[in-house]
C-alpha cells in the first residue's frame, strides 16, 4: 500500500515515523509521503484559503490549490480520504475497507474545510470518502489522519507481531460488537488487590467463560448502544444470564 498525506502542517504527521506504524514503513509494509499543500499555491503570498461564498465565519480552502495538489498525487486507483467532522463515522469495518486499498490519499483541511467541488470533481475519477473520527470538532484533519493511518496500518499483512490481536481486540472480527475483557499480568497482588482467581485455575473453559462474561458486562455498562444491536445468533445459552 501507498499513503500520501497533503497538509499545511507536514510536521503534524511526524509521529507516523514512530512505533508500530514507523516500523511497518521501514519493513516495507507500506510507503508514506507527506506533502506541503502550500507548494501548490501560485500567488506571491502562497494563499490557500479565502472567505466563504454565502458568508459566515472563517475561511475555506481554495478548490484550485487542492486541485493542483491532487493532480500531482492522486490517480484512478486512489481512494481519496477527506477528514471532516461532517463525514461518515470511522469504525473498524471502515478501517478494514481502507486497509484493502492500493493507494490512500488524505486531504487535510484546516479552517472551515475545503471547497466542496474538490471532493465532487475527484469523485468523477476516483473513490472519495469523507470521514469523521467522532462527534467532536478538531482544529484540522491532521490528528484524524494520525488516527486513521494507525487504524489502517495495523491491519496490513505482517504489521502486527501477533495477527490474533487484530481478531480479539474490541471491535475485531472475533468478538463482534463486544468490548474486550480486562487484562491482568504480574504481580499477582497489586496494592492489596489479587487478580481474579479463575485466571490461574488452569481451567481453560472457565477462563473463556469469565472473559466472555466480563466482555458482556463491560459492554452493557459502557456501551449499551452496542448491546442493543448485538446479533442474537452470536449469544450462547449462558450469556442470557449475564
Ligand atoms: Cl476528520 N476533522 C476535524 N476537523 N474534526 C473532526 C474530525 C475530523 N473528526 C471528528 N472531528
TrEMBL record:
<keyword id="KW-0808">Transferase</keyword>
<keyword id="KW-0819">tRNA processing</keyword>
<dbReference type="GO" id="GO:0005829">
    <property type="term" value="C:cytosol"/>
</dbReference>
<comment type="function">
    <text>Specifically methylates guanosine-37 in various tRNAs.</text>
</comment>
<feature type="binding site">
    <location>
        <begin position="133"/>
        <end position="138"/>
    </location>
    <ligand>
        <name>S-adenosyl-L-methionine</name>
    </ligand>
</feature>
<comment type="subunit">
    <text>Homodimer.</text>
</comment>
<comment type="similarity">
    <text>Belongs to the RNA methyltransferase TrmD family.</text>
</comment>
<dbReference type="InterPro" id="IPR029026">
    <property type="entry name" value="tRNA_m1G_MTases_N"/>
</dbReference>
<dbReference type="Pfam" id="PF01746">
    <property type="entry name" value="tRNA_m1G_MT"/>
</dbReference>
<dbReference type="GO" id="GO:0052906">
    <property type="term" value="F:tRNA (guanine(37)-N1)-methyltransferase activity"/>
</dbReference>
<feature type="binding site">
    <location>
        <position position="109"/>
    </location>
    <ligand>
        <name>S-adenosyl-L-methionine</name>
    </ligand>
</feature>
<dbReference type="GO" id="GO:0002939">
    <property type="term" value="P:tRNA N1-guanine methylation"/>
</dbReference>
<dbReference type="InterPro" id="IPR029028">
    <property type="entry name" value="Alpha/beta_knot_MTases"/>
</dbReference>
<keyword id="KW-0963">Cytoplasm</keyword>
<dbReference type="InterPro" id="IPR016009">
    <property type="entry name" value="tRNA_MeTrfase_TRMD/TRM10"/>
</dbReference>
<keyword id="KW-0949">S-adenosyl-L-methionine</keyword>
<dbReference type="InterPro" id="IPR002649">
    <property type="entry name" value="tRNA_m1G_MeTrfase_TrmD"/>
</dbReference>
<protein>
    <recommendedName>
        <fullName>tRNA (guanine-N(1)-)-methyltransferase</fullName>
        <ecNumber>2.1.1.228</ecNumber>
    </recommendedName>
</protein>
<dbReference type="InterPro" id="IPR023148">
    <property type="entry name" value="tRNA_m1G_MeTrfase_C_sf"/>
</dbReference>
<feature type="domain" description="tRNA methyltransferase TRMD/TRM10-type">
    <location>
        <begin position="1"/>
        <end position="227"/>
    </location>
</feature>
<keyword id="KW-0489">Methyltransferase</keyword>
Amino acid at each position: 500500500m501507498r499513503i500520501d498525506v497533503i497538509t499545511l502542517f507536514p510536521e503534524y504527521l511526524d509521529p507516523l515515523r514512530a512505533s508500530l506504524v514507523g516500523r511497518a514503513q521501514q519493513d516495507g509494509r507500506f510507503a508514506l509521503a507527506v506533502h506541503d499543500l502550500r507548494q501548490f499555491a501560485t500567488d506571491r503570498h502562497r494563499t490557500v484559503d479565502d472567505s466563504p461564498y454565502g458568508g459566515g465565519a472563517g475561511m475555506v480552502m481554495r478548490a484550485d490549490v487542492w486541485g493542483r495538489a491532487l493532480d500531482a498525487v492522486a490517480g484512478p486507483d486512489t481512494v481519496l480520504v477527506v477528514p471532516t467532522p461532517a463525514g461518515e463515522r470511522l469504525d473498524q469495518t471502515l478501517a478494514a475497507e481502507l486497509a484493502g486499498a492500493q493507494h490512500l490519499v488524505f486531504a487535510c483541511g484546516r479552517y472551515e474545510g475545503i471547497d466542496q467541488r474538490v471532493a465532487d470533481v475527484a469523485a468523477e475519477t476516483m473513490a472519495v470518502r469523507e470521514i469523521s473520527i467522532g462527534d467532536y470538532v478538531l482544529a484540522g484533519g491532521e490528528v484524524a489522519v494520525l488516527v486513521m493511518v494507525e487504524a489502517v496500518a495495523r491491519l496490513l499483512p505482517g504489521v502486527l507481531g501477533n495477527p490474533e490481536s487484530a481478531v480479539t481486540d474490541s471491535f475485531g472480527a472475533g468478538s463482534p460488537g463486544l468490548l474486550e475483557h480486562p487484562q491482568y499480568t504480574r504481580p499477582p497482588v497489586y496494592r492489596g488487590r489479587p487478580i481474579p482467581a479463575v485466571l490461574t485455575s488452569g481451567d481453560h473453559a472457565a477462563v473463556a467463560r469469565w472473559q466472555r462474561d466480563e466482555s458482556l458486562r463491560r459492554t452493557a455498562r459502557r456501551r449499551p448502544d452496542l448491546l442493543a444491536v448485538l446479533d442474537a445468533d452470536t449469544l450462547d445459552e449462558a450469556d442470557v444470564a449475564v
